[in-house]
Amino acid sequence: MRVNDIFYSLQGEGFHTGIPAVFIRLSGCNLKCSFCDTEHDSYQDLSEEEIVDRVVAFPAQLVIVTGGEPALQLTESLVDKLHLENRFIAVETNGTLPLPENIDWITLSPKQSFVGTKGRVQLSYADEVKVIFDGIHNPDEMLGAIDTDNLFLQPCDTGNKQQNEIIIAQCVDFVKQNPQWRLSLQTHKLIGIQ
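^ thats the sequence. predicted structure below, dont judge the formating
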């Protein structure tokens, strides 16, 4: 598998915020969002056994497979191998491709509003949906017909401090007016960790 990075940190956003986790960041994506923070062309080829060996070197039970788009590479066999090591497997996906069925937690972050029809979500269920809020697109329209119990709205990090402040204020207002949503901040960026 093409692995961009494997590292140990705290989950910085969404439902599992603050929980220690091992992150497996896979390289490559079928979408190219302007705000993406992944180096898609930087990777090393690792076998499933090498990935598991690196993951179990850390004490966290939570393993988050992210990208890029993990559905391009993630296999049931890797998830099975991590389950044998008593790990809970979460995946962060744009939802445009099928995922292995043995994943424990799916975080869906739809991107259709940012990239057009190539970002059309194929999944019908996710444990949580995390919509990137840019102050332009309506989060409810991005949600579509996805079945979930956990809705998170995350302010888009534009890299511009003034623009970010405006987006955060609009996001807070939207959540207050639409209480089915919860605010998700990128706390890892706020406290300066990976």
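The chain is about 25% helix and 25% strand.
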